[in-house]
Design a protein that fits this description.
N-terminal domain of TfIIb; 3 helices; alpha+beta; 18% strand; 38% helix; single chain
């Protein structure tokens, strides 16, 4: 028996083979779901605003079920409901700031 054959049969070679095996990739982290229901900026109802995205027409709409206020905007493939709601809040703040400047 040659030295190579003896090494292959020895427990030392088996241990080396086991330690050279690939490590498992780390598990993928799960993304938390973002909210689709928000507080209305007009009537302050806690869960009154619901956001819907129509990818066919590229329109996002946020509507309050309580006071019937609504906001529409264009969307992209990356748009989430929180983006539509944030744009609505930004637009409300922009309108309020313009009214305050006109009054002054």
């Amino acid at each position: 028996m040659s030295i190579v054959e003896r090494l292959r049969k020895s427990s030392f070679f088996i241990v080396l083979q086991r330690s050279q095996s690939r490590a498992k990739p780390p598990p993928k982290k799960r993304m938390d779901k973002l909210d689709t229901v928000f507080s209305c900026p007009f009537c302050n109802h806690g869960s009154g605003v619901e956001c819907r995205i129509d990818m066919k027409n590229l329109i996002g709409e946020a509507t309050c079920r309580i006071c019937q206020e609504s906001f529409s905007t264009t969307v992209t493939a990356l748009t989430e409901p929180i983006d539509i709601y944030s744009e609505w809040i930004d637009e409300c703040e922009r309108v309020n700031n313009n009214e305050e400047e006109e009054d002054a």
